[in-house]
Each structure stands twice: as C-alpha cells, then as structure tokens.
Amino acid sequence: MEYDIKFDQVSFRYTDSDTPALKDINLEIKTGEIVLITGPAGSGKTTLCSCINGLIPHYHEGDLEGKVTIGEYDTKNVRVGGLASIVGMVFQDPESQLVTNSVADEVAFGPENFGIPREKINKRVRKALKATRMTGYEDREPHTLSGGEQQSCVIAATYSMHPEIYVLDEPLANLDPQGRAKVLELVTDIASEFGKTMIIVEHALEEILPYVQRVIIMDKGTIVRDGSVESILENGDIKQVFKRPDITRLAQSIDLAGFPLKPEHLISAMQEKYQLRGVAQTMDHARGNGKGDPVIVMDNVSHRYEAGVNALHEVSLSIHQGEFIALLGRNGSGKTTLVSHIIGLLKPTQGKVTVVGQNTMDTPTHILARHVGFCFQNPNHQIVSFTVKDEMEFGLKAHGIDESEYPDRIQRALEIVNMEEYADAEVFDLGKGQKQRIALASVLTLEPEMLVIDEPTTGQDPEMTFEIFEIINKLNQKGTTVLLITHKVDYAAMYAKRAILLNHGHIKFDGNIDDLLMDEALMQANSLELPDITRLAKQLGDYGVPANTVHYEDMENYLKQMVEVNRGN
C-alpha cells in the first residue's frame, strides 16, 4: 500500500500563542522519498512532524486548519495509536519517549504491542542494537544512559517497529561523529532497500545532504524553498535561515562550478580549473587560556554507579581561572559523569574533587552553585517553571539576589541568548533548542565565575550555534572559566585552546587542541572527526596552508591566494 503524505492548506496555532506555528502549508511527500527538512530553530519543523504522526491535533492543543492525510487516512479521524504502525517518530528529546526499565525491553516494546511473534522480536532487537552500536547495553536502564546513548536507543526502538514512514526529528543532535554516520547509513539503507519514506529534520547539512533526495527549508511556519539537493544549493544561502556547507561556499568563492560537499572534491575541481600556487600569507588567531590559580582540581577520581558501571577511572586534572576547555569523547565516555562531580551532583567513589578550595564531598550543591553555573545536556532536567520569566527569577530568588536587580539581570541574559521576545512565553511550548537557550540564560542571570556547559548547541541552527559559542567566548574573555562538552570539534578548535579527551572514563588526551587535531589516529579511535576545513587544510599542506586551520574566513583567504594569478589579479 502507498502511504503518500499530503498537507492541504494546513495552518496550526498552539493554544495561548498569538503566532501560528504553521501557515498555509501545501506539501506532498511520495512513498519512498528521503527528505531533509531544515531551517532555523522555531521555524515550525517539529510542529510539521507532529502533524504527520497525529500528535497534532490529538495531543498538542491548538487550532488546526486544513487537512493532513497519510495514504488514505485523515489524521483528524485516526488516533495516534492507529498511526503508530505506519509512522515511526524519533523525537527531538529522546528521553521523552523512553518508557521501560531496560534497553532490550525498550527496543522490543513497539513490536510487542503490534503482536509480533517473540522469535521475530528477538531477531529485530539484536539487529537494531547492532546497527546503533548498543549491543551490550541490553540490561541498562534507559534513563541512566547519556544523551547520545538514549538517542541511539530510541532510534533502535523505532527501527524495530518497521514502520512505513520514519520521521526523525534531530536524530544526530546528541551523537558523536561516528555514531551520526552509522545512523545515517542505517536509516537511508532502510529507506532505499525497503522503499520506506524517510523524513529527517536536521541542521548538519554536510553530513546529511549526500543521503537525501529532496530538501525543504522552513522559516516562521512556512516553506520558503523546496527542491532537489542541487537546486537548493544552486539558489544560494538565505540570510539567518539557511547556510550551505562550508565546502560548497568555498567553491563558489573561487568561481568553481558545481556543488562539492567533500574536501577532496573541491581540490580536484581546483586542480582541474587552476594552476595552483603556494600561500604567501597565513593567519593566526590568539585563543587566550587563563593562567590563574587552580579553581577546579580532580585528584585520582573514580566513580562507580549503583548499577555497577564504572564511569570514571583515576581521573586527575586541574582547571585554572580563565581557561576555556573543550571536553571531548564519544557517547558514553564519561563526560557528563565527570562534570557532574564539579557541581556536587555526583560524589567520587574514590579520590577528591575541590572547587575553589572546597571539597565537593561535604559542600552542598547550592554553595558550589554560587561559583559554578551548570547547564545540563537536556534542558528539561534544569527547567522547573512554567513561564520563561519565572524560570529566570527562580535562581535569583534561590541565591538571595536583591529583587530590584531582577529586571536588568533577566533582560541582559535573554538578550545574550536572543530570546528577549519570549520573556512571557510558556516554557513547554518552546522547542528543545529554545529551551537550551533559556536554560543558559537562567544560569547567566547569576553571573557565575565558572561555567560548565553540557552540549549547549543541541538542536540549534548554524547561526545560533555560532552565536552561542560567541557568547561563551565573550564571557571567557571577561574572565569566566569555561568547561564545555561538545561534539562540534570545529567550534571547539576555534574557541578553546585546551582539550580533554575521555574514553570509557579514562583521560586519553589533555593538552593543546591543535595537537589533538593533528593526531588523526587518536581522533578516529575516539569517534571524533576532523572538521571539513581542517581536512581540507591538511590536504593542501604542500601549498603552505596551515594544517590546523579551522576558520572559514582563513580558508577562503588561502584558496583565493592559491588561485589569484589565474583569476587575473
């Protein structure tokens, strides 16, 4: 049976919202298509997906106009459960759809509810866990997993149901680079082999464009561009809405035809068109790293969870006032466990952690929070209020800040994260990316001397990712110590000078991030990938391009130097 997806003049406005989340959507997705939906945070991508699986209108309250059909089914007339066997959805927040007490049960849950025979269920579970790198996690409790592991678990659970339509909302957001590659290969292979429809909401264009057939760009609840990958790239960037991959933009900057997505393709095109010459002038970026007194010290720290999982092994490190440090590693490497010790959320099984001289073993979390601002990987673990304004005030009240300071502190914090217009919004009407910014803003109202931030750019569009790193960098330049967990190696290399690399709870590297980038074997062994611009730089080393180049503007400058004689300059 064919399950075409059709939107006929669809608009939707959430209850208590003055602005429609979708406006006059007319869209058809044929059975078997692999489609990317992209656009800035808050553009309506998740709302559109919720229309496909029936959460709108049956779960999310609001006014729905128009008609959404899945094959012969009008979603207004079919319950969510009735569509579940047809539409499998991976939510933006994976934890919100975990319902059982073990990974194996989670993956088996869907097929069991569809009445699949036990032998087939077991086979599906094994295959799904292997494909998502979750073999060995069968007995783990899903809510104790890292964000990336939870995302893999949910993708495995969706895969095991064998739906006709896969709707994946930010499926790569919490995964390390190798995990992202495996997931993309898995879901697109499924679509191609079995003729399944695949709808993927993502910002990671460099990785996903080679796998999709069609791109839909959304902004402010409308579809602003819809076409093949080539036509979308040919029509260029849309300011503050859509930015093409760096390699594609670099090709255009030196007048190359076509739309290369990989460094090697760009180099081939350059060599074919131009007689290349060496780079005469290179760029240098100073990345300040504080050299003040140690403010965080871990001495031989190990941690073992009650379930018996050893998450940290004899970790020793010192963080100095004013440093900007990137904490890297594959999913499940112990990064969140490590930073949770700094704020006292976890206590060491062995060893000692001190923060500004205070032993976290016997110092209450609220005392540590006066010095350390902590942003969780999942903002829902941090947000406790119904409105943005109340959330901003919560920490100020808890820390006894004078009430007369509230308006200025809140205004400054919301402006920093570009969310000032949401001051009166309901928190749970916001998307995950927007919640992430609110969580960061609530921490910034307290003006902490140290920031520990766990994956602050999850769910953010490229513009906002850049803005958030700029925000954090400016705070660091003013003296704030920053410890940042991220899978975005390119941004880490642009802003941090020091990197700490974890693998299964062991420190595998602690030093200058440039040195880490040059050690490709170590990077690959820890599921990290070089940024595309750095990969390009290393391949252009014979022309004098510095191998540690990470900035787009620098690479554009080098390429123009390499070809300028040929262009008549």
Structural class designation: alpha/beta
Strand order of the largest sheet: 6-7-8-3-9-10
Mean pLDDT: 91
Number of strand elements:
20
Q: Please work out how many helical segments DSSP would assign.
A: 22
Rg over C-alpha atoms, rounded to the nearest angstrom: 24 Å
What is the helix content? 25-40%
Q: Outline the low-pLDDT stretches.
A: none
Question: Judging from the principal axes of the Cα atoms, what is the shape?
Answer: globular
CA distance, first residue to last residue: 61 Å
The main pleated sheet reads as: 6 strands, mixed
Question: What do you see in this structure?
Answer:
By secondary structure, the protein is an alpha/beta fold. The chain is 36% helix and 22% strand. It is built from 22 helices and 20 strands. It has a six-stranded mixed beta sheet with strand order 6-7-8-3-9-10, with helices on both faces. The protein has a six-stranded mixed beta sheet with strand order 16-17-18-13-19-20, sandwiched between helices. It has a four-stranded antiparallel beta sheet with strand order 2-1-4-5, covered by helices on one side. The longest helix is centred in the first third of the chain and has 18 residues, at 177-194. The radius of gyration is 24 Å and the shape is globular. The mean pLDDT is 91.
